[in-house]
Design brief:
- By secondary structure, the chain is mainly α.
- Among the domains are: 54 residues, Wheat Germ Agglutinin (Isolectin 2), domain 1 (2-Layer Sandwich), CATH 3.30.60; 51 residues; 68 residues; 64 residues, no CATH class.
- It is 50% helix and 9% strand.
- It contains 14 helices and ten strands.
- The strands form four sheets. A three-stranded antiparallel beta sheet has the order 1-2-3, with no helix packed on it. It has a three-stranded antiparallel beta sheet with strand order 5-4-6.
- The longest helix is centred in the middle third of the chain and has 30 residues.
Length: 347
C-alpha cells in the first residue's frame, strides 16, 4: 500500500515500511513484505495463492548493508567491461560509489571472502595484475572539441569531433600489433613477446595523444590566419621571449607556460627599469620627475630622428652639444644632463 505523503510503501498485513515488495496482481493496492509473504499471510479478499509480482529498484542489500543489489550488478558489469584494477572507470560506472569504495568492496565481498575462495584459484587476481603489468590506468578524459571553420579543418586535415588527423603522428604505429598472430596454444616466450609488442604500441599511442593534448592546450590547432592574429596581440619583446623558451612548453601545461612567460617579461621590465635608474644616478639626476622628463625628450628625439649637430652651449664652464632645437627650451640642469650623456656616448 502506497503512502501519498512520503511516497513509501507499507506492508498491507503488518504495516512496516518496505522497499522490496511483492505486489498482488489479484487485489488492488495490496503489497506484502518478504516475511509476510513467506508466512503465507492472508487478509480480507487476499489469498496466498494469488499471483504476485516482485517490485524493487534494486535497493535491497545482498552481501553488505551499504551496497544495494543494483550496485552489485553494476560493479560486476564494470569489472568485466573495464577490467580488474581499472577502479577509476569502475567507480564511474557504478556512479553511486567512489573508485576507492568500489575497490574495497570488490576485494572484501568477492576476492577475500567465501565467494572468492570457492570460485577463484589462489592469488588469482594478483597474478592477473602481475601478468598484465599492474592495475589498468583510467580511460583518457573526454575533451571539448575545438570550434574550427571548414577551411581550417581542410588545411589541417583534422576532424575536431573525432580528434583525429588524416595522417597521425607516428602513423604506422598500428603495424606493430596488426601482424601479431592469435591462437589458443602458445608458450610463455611467445606470450611475453606479444605483451612486449602491446606495450610498445601503447607507448607510441601515449606519445601521439600527448602531442594532440599539447596542440589543443596551446591553441595550435587553427589556420594560419588564426595563429598569426594570436601572435600579433603580443609585443615584440614578448614574442622574442616566447620564441626563445618555446621548447619548454612541451614540459608544462598552458597555465604554467603562460606564468613562465609573464615572469620572464616582468623580469626584463625590472632589469630595464634598474638600468634606467642607474643612468639617472650617473647623470646626477636625483628626482624621478626629472628622469621621466628626460625619457620623454629622448623619445621625442627618436621620433624626430634629427642627427645634425647644432651650435653648442655652455653650462658651468662645460660645452653642451645640442641635437634638437626643442632642447633649448629646457632648464639648464636638464640641458646639461642630456648633452653630457650624448657626449659620453660619442667618446
Amino acid at each position: 500500500m502506497a503512502d501519498d505523503d512520503s511516497q513509501r510503501y507499507h506492508c498491507s498485513y503488518c504495516g512496516c515500511d518496505i522497499t522490496l515488495r511483492l505486489k498482488c496482481n489479484g487485489c488492488p493496492d495490496f503489497d506484502l513484505c518478504l516475511e509476510c509473504f513467506a508466512s503465507g499471510a492472508s487478509i480480507g479478499n487476499h489469498m496466498p495463492d494469488h499471483p504476485y509480482q516482485l517490485i524493487d529498484e534494486g535497493s535491497f542489500p545482498l552481501l553488505t548493508n551499504d551496497w544495494g543489489a543494483i550496485e552489485e550488478v553494476l560493479l560486476l558489469e564494470a569489472v568485466e567491461q573495464d577490467g580488474f584494477g581499472n577502479w577509476e572507470d569502475i567507480g564511474a560506472h557504478v556512479f553511486t560509489k567512489t573508485a576507492r569504495e568500489s575497490k574495497d568492496h570488490y576485494n572484501e565481498a568477492y576476492v577475500n571472502s567465501i565467494i572468492g575462495e570457492g570460485l577463484l584459484l589462489p592469488d588469482y587476481h594478483s597474478k592477473v595484475l602481475a601478468d598484465g603489468g599492474g592495475e589498468i590506468p583510467p580511460s583518457p578524459p573526454s575533451f571539448t572539441p575545438m570550434s574550427l571553420e571548414h577551411n581550417e579543418q581542410q588545411d589541417l586535415t583534422y576532424a575536431p569531433l573525432r580528434d583525429d588527423f588524416e595522417k597521425e603522428y607516428d602513423n604506422g604505429a598500428e603495424r606493430i600489433i596488426s601482424e601479431v598472430p592469435i591462437h589458443n596454444e602458445e608458450d610463455s616466450i611467445e606470450r611475453e613477446l606479444k605483451l612486449a609488442h602491446i606495450d610498445m604500441y601503447n607507448k607510441r599511442l601515449g606519445e601521439r595523444e600527448k602531442r594532440k593534448c599539447f596542440a589543443r592546450d596551446h591553441n595550435l590547432l587553427g589556420g594560419k590566419m588564426r595563429i598569426s592574429s594570436m601572435k600579433r596581440k603580443y609585443s615584440k619583446e614578448e614574442r622574442d621571449i616566447r620564441n626563445k623558451f618555446r621548447p619548454l612548453a612541451r614540459l608544462m601545461d598552458k597555465d604554467e607556460y603562460e606564468k613562465l612567460v609573464g615572469s620572464l617579461k616582468r623580469e626584463k621590465e625590472l632589469i630595464e627599469r634598474i638600468q634606467s635608474l642607474k643612468e639617472y644616478k650617473r647623470n646626477g639626476i636625483t628626482k624621478i620627475e626629472d628622469g621621466i622628463e628626460i625619457d620623454m625628450l629622448k623619445q621625442e628625439k627618436e621620433k624626430e630622428n634629427e642627427h645634425s649637430e647644432l651650435p653648442g652651449d655652455t653650462y658651468q664652464g662645460k660645452t653642451i652639444y645640442m641635437y634638437s632645437l626643442f632642447h633649448y627650451s629646457l632648464c639648464p640642469t636638464i640641458r646639461y644632463c642630456i648633452a653630457d650623456t650624448e657626449r659620453k656616448k660619442s667618446l
